Amino acid sequence: MKEIFLDEDFDIEDTSSKINSLMSKWSIRFLDINGPNWVIYNQDMEVKYVFLFEVDFNDIETRIKLEDLKLNVIHHIESLKDDTTYRDNLINSVFID
Question: What is the side-by-side order of every strand in the sheet holding 85-89?
């Protein structure tokens, strides 16, 4: 498993490209978006990558960036036309004070 740490200065396009590239691999099956932790699983449901966003969920600009990133990635996953899927739980009251 590889962990990738990102702070509030992450670039939406660059991060989208990285995640989309990983999601395009034949061995990848599932992206679990759970607040600041985005976990990518392979076909055997083993964790392969974890994107850890070390950001303030109370900051509206950061949340907008995360939403934009999420939409970019989801759009890409849906365009793959295979069994790759995702679960979206980006904004949850647990992550917001």
Answer: 2-7, 47-54, 37-42, 28-34, 85-89
